[in-house]
Amino acid sequence: MFANAIRLVSNSKKIKNEYNIDKESPIYVGPWTVYPAAKRGTDVEVSVFSFEKRNLSTFLKNSSSLNASLKENMILENLRRDVGSLSRLRHPSLLQVVEPLEESKSRLTFVTKRVQFSLADVICVSTPITSDSSDPSNPFALDEIEIQKGLLQIMNGLSFLKNSAKILHLNVQPRSVIIDSKGDWKLCGFGFCQSLECPRYELLDFDFSIPSSLQQCLDFLAPEYVLHEIVGPENDVFSLGCLIYAVFNRGKSVINAKNHLLSYEKEVSDLNDRLGFYMKNIHSHSLRSLLLQLLSLNSKDRIDVSFLESADYFTSGTISTLRFLEAFPEKLQSEKAAFLESLVNNLSAISYRVQSQKVLPTLLDFLNDQEITASLLPCIFQISKSLDSSMFSSKVFPKFLPLLSHPQNSENTVIIILQSIDCFKVKLPRSTFYERVLPFVYACLEQSSTSIQISAVKIFNYVLDILDQKTVKSVICPKLYHCFAVTKQLEVKVAILECFHVFINATLLDSFAILDKLLPLLEKVKTRVSAVVIAMLQVYADIGRVIPEESVHELVMPRLWVLSASTELTVQEYTHFMREIRKLGDFIQREHIKKLHSHLSSSPYESSKHSTKTSSNAIANSQSSYQEQSPFIRASSSLTTVPSFASHAPSASKADKSSTSTLPFPPLLPTKINESGTHQNQVKNDESLNDLGAWKSLL
């Protein structure tokens, strides 16, 4: 029956040669040791199941040789049946075999899709929690929506076995369920399965010399099967009820037979009386009602597995969201859009793990559907905020690349991407952001849509902390200059001016770039609309604090006075304009005074000027002393001016004379004008200062 599914090769090394197997971190699924592995050349993640035959010899060493041989053959046959059934059957709810069974003298080995955990391991160390308290770092913390989804998958698997494969599982328990890397629950453990068309009763007495993982567990078997040897689909329904109960009770079934038949009978006899008490850990009333039907001692009263998925517990609340996503391809576009609109508001009710493992992959698969892309993006970006950078870079961002390079995206799609640019900035390496995301922003500057252009310009304010001066000067600003020059939309011009304001204050535009490119661009602006004029005022005020003082006097202040004359300004705007001009003027004045002080203190002639000042003070003191001694000088000191030295020159008109300059009396150093019109000092030494005759001759 399973011959085609088994590769029986002595000491076969195919799996070993084709897969890189990590033997440092195994998990255990029933009797199998499961190792994470990857196929060489493709790095596809898989799991390698292995069973060492030598362990059987250890288990059976106390049995007689004949019994040991029979038991060993029976166990090996069950293991082969397990793998053979999985290899033949194909269903999303069943563990999928990648490489069929290889059997050697020492072990059994086969390969499946990647397995993350055994359900038995998860529920034994954790109780179900609500989505609000879900800890994404704890892989064993199942929330209720994960349980609902997982149970639905197991029910679908059992329904497939009954209705399509015509197989009874007869081993439904936590050790027969695995959880894969996507959080999906898969059914395995087919070692005791029977054909539904000709079932056989094969329950053996429990052998305590053999590990329980190699035997059927009484705690999860139906009473009619164990006590009355009745084999039918209802057996799996009862086992499913025990499984559901175990999920909410750390792996314990409603029956605790301790692998003894007599204990099993006793447990079953008063099961109905104990069920109400046992349900205390199950808070959902609809699930409690469902369990009472599944665990009925009368097999005919049990609900058919095919109808389980329509029960209230599996159709209401958040689980309906996941079920809609499963059927997403079959829905109408209007239904998809309406669903996505509500989903973005309900994501907070879904745990991080379910968002990342179940919701996000489905949304990303439909990202290329342009009709609903704008509806998908808000959900995707909201979920992505919680992802770590490595997951976003490897799983999410590659799906965005077609959108970032596609010129025909709808306006809504482009604007949503631009508004969510911070997600790319935070999650991506800077080099990837520069190479993949910024070119998309540059392309948006050339779009005809005003909304897109404004959104694109504003992006540079959001990503300012990762921009460098070289990129701003040589790449970004040239594109902004061009856009500013060609656009007729004043809103775009204002947005670009605000961007220049930010760049200047962040010192990303230096004096040379401003003088060479920005000021000539601003000089060409003809509009006097108040929004543009006020934005230009702010930019000019920023420029005035960066460029040299001479350039401010020549290029900035005159331009501000011209702009202030705009009749489009309100009184309040004009007042603000003049205030800013005064502020800039005050700033320039302070800076110039500082420059003068600095120049004077560093001048090589400063010391000589200081000496001259000292000499002048001494001369003034001696003149004052002389005036006190000489009556003539005291009388003459009442004169405020002296005749111009021009009187010694050729005669001039009366008007010219009246306009000649005057000097304070008396001069510090008596002078006369020579024939060439230049002054000559006639005081040769300090003694002539005391010669009254010399003063008289000058008068």
Overview of the structural elements:
By secondary structure, the protein is α+β, with helices and mostly antiparallel strands. It has a domain of 299 residues: Orthogonal Bundle (Transferase(Phosphotransferase), domain 1), CATH 1.10.510.10. The protein is elongated, with a radius of gyration of 47 Å.
Distance between the termini: 143 Å
Rg (C-alpha, Å):
47 Å
- Main β-sheet description: 7 strands, mixed
- Number of contiguous helices: 29
Do you know the CATH architecture of the domain at 16-314? Orthogonal Bundle
Task: Name the features.
699 residues; alpha+beta; 7-stranded mixed sheet; 3-stranded antiparallel sheet; 54% helix; disordered C terminus; transferase; protein kinase activity; ATP binding; SCY1 protein kinase Ppk32; Prot_kinase_dom
Condensed summary:
One of its GO terms (biological process) is negative regulation of TORC1 signaling. This protein has 699 residues and is α+β, with helices and mostly antiparallel strands. It has a domain at 16-314: Transferase(Phosphotransferase) domain 1 (Transferase(Phosphotransferase), domain 1), CATH 1.10.510.
